[in-house]
């Protein structure tokens, strides 16, 4: 459908980029930091899975240990973000940098001081921090001692951590997210990435042969309770806090008009996307979740006060990641393709990235409308981007026109969604500086506007350089989305 109005971004729109501590900080054993679950993940490749080790093996490559050394280079990196014109920067705090074992009674002052310095540098560059409290990591000691989020006692560890952050940064940080892509726990391989529990089996990150849905959804329930408690606590400490949820939005179309395909697409949308956000935005489990639990024989253990806690801890805004779309069908013989966290069926109308993720900007417009029509609270797209292999020219330049085209089309889709009436308040493309891939542990799979000289084996100078997309995004921000060429 042709646009009948000139799409524009609202004044004060938040433009920036997104990262996660475990994928860029490094300094895994510095500043009093304890081991995190992500510190136990080895490197993988495009075709081989990352391995989970229960003890560090000096013969293996653990990408998070150095990552891109932001721990020592944050001033340089934040200056580059400022040069691009960011007015927001999505980052996470490493829980084990604040509470090395997770259940410590007192926080590490050295860890808090590090983030004091990061926030001061952001302020100097007029950049608002958007802080994810738990982004695909937890103190590894919690996984060992309690089997992570499967144990209700971890809720108190998390809320103690939140209280520390909210109190320390009550005048520094306005925007918070409780858990990154919390809905990963609706997927069989989500347990370790979510810091939920140590999986059994062969140690492969994506191994689903030992999946325990009962334990997985119990862990998810504990995260819901923890998130709701954090929201209530944060608002008590500073009523001006804006505390949101974060969902990995998995856009799925029915492959055909067969009613079975249409119902399957709706069921996937409900279970993988809306189960978690219904609890966090509306404060209660939806009916379809109760039916799913009954059908699967899942019996959640809930305390009498849990329903009230969920009602009192609804989030202020909804954030999500969007990279691609897939299709679903009742026909088991259709060709499968990859995507962010999930597999789906190939859409014959779409092209795909180097990693097989289908490129679908129109799916973003559809998703924004679908989400906003359901909740009607402010939305923010906090992850979006193209993972690709970038080539450095002899003169040091990096011509990533494929990334510019991907982002341009998604910015246009956002403009159209805003014209549709969606209250979209911000955009932080993923991996604004090259960092370690969460799924594969690679450096080769790059998303950034800023190139980092490091390869999959961990070799390189770590020098930073600007890609063509750096200057393109600079113009987009300066024009508030009006200049996209």
UniProtKB/TrEMBL annotation:
Source organism (scientific name)? Paenibacillus nuruki
Keywords annotated in UniProt: Glycosidase, Hydrolase
Superkingdom as given in the UniProt entry: Bacteria
Swiss-Prot/TrEMBL GO biological process terms: carbohydrate catabolic process
What family does the entry list?
Belongs to the glycosyl hydrolase 1 family.
Which GO CC annotations does the UniProt entry carry? cytosol
The UniProt transmembrane annotation reads none
**Protein name (record):** Amygdalase
Q: Write down the InterPro entries for this protein, in alphabetical order.
A: GH, GH_1_N_CS, Glyco_hydro_1
Q: Which Gene Ontology molecular-function terms are recorded?
A: beta-glucosidase activity
């Amino acid at each position: 459908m042709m646009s009948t109005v000139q799409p524009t971004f609202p004044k004060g729109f938040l433009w920036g980029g997104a990262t996660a501590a475990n994928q860029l900080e490094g300094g895994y054993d510095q500043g009093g930091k304890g081991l995190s679950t992500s510190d136990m993940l080895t490197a993988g490749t495009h075709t081989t899975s990352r391995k989970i080790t229960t003890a560090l093996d000096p013969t293996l490559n653990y990408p998070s240990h150095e990552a891109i050394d932001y721990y020592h280079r944050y001033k340089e990196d934040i200056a580059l973000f400022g040069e691009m014109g960011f007015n927001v920067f999505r980052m996470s705090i490493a829980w084990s940098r604040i509470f090395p074992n997770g259940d410590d009674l007192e926080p590490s002052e050295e860890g808090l001081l590090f983030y004091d310095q990061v926030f001061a540098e952001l302020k100097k560059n007029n950049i608002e921090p958007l802080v994810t409290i738990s982004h695909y990591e937890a103190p590894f000691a919690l996984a060992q001692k309690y089997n992570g989020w499967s144990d209700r006692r971890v809720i108190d560890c998390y809320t103690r951590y939140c209280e520390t952050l909210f109190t320390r940064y009550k005048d520094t940080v306005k925007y918070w997210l409780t858990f990154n892509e919390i809905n990963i726990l609706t997927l069989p391989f989500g347990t370790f990435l979510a810091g939920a529990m140590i999986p059994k089996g062969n140690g492969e990150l994506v191994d689903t042969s030992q999946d325990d849905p009962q334990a997985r959804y119990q862990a998810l329930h504990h995260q819901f309770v923890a998130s709701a408690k954090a929201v209530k606590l944060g608002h008590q400490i500073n009523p001006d806090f804006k505390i949101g949820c974060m969902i990995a939005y998995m856009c799925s179309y029915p492959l055909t008009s067969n009613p079975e395909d249409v119902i399957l697409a709706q069921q996937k949308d409900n279970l993988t996307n809306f189960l978690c956000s219904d609890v966090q935005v509306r404060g209660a489990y939806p009916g379809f979740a109760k039916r799913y639990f009954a059908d699967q024989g899942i019996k959640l253990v809930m305390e009498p006060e849990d329903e009230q806690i969920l009602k009192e801890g609804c989030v202020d805004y909804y954030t999500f990641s969007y990279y691609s779309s897939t299709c679903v069908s009742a026909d088991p013989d259709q060709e499968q393709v990859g995507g962010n966290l999930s597999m789906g069926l190939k859409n014959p109308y779409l092209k795909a990235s180097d990693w097989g993720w289908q490129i679908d900007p129109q799916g973003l417009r559809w998703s924004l409308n679908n989400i906003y029509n359901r909740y009607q609270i402010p939305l923010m797209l906090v992850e979006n981007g193209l993972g690709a292999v970038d080539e450095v020219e002899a003169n040091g330049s990096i011509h990533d026109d494929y990334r510019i085209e991907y982002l341009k089309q998604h910015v246009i889709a956002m403009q159209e969604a805003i014209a549709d009436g969606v209250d979209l308040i911000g955009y932080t493309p993923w991996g604004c500086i090259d960092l370690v891939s969460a799924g594969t542990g690679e450096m080769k799979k790059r998303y950034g506007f800023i190139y980092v000289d490091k390869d999959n084996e961990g070799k390189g100078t770590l020098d930073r350089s600007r890609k063509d997309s750096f200057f393109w995004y600079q113009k987009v921000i300066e024009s508030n989305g009006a200049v996209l060429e």
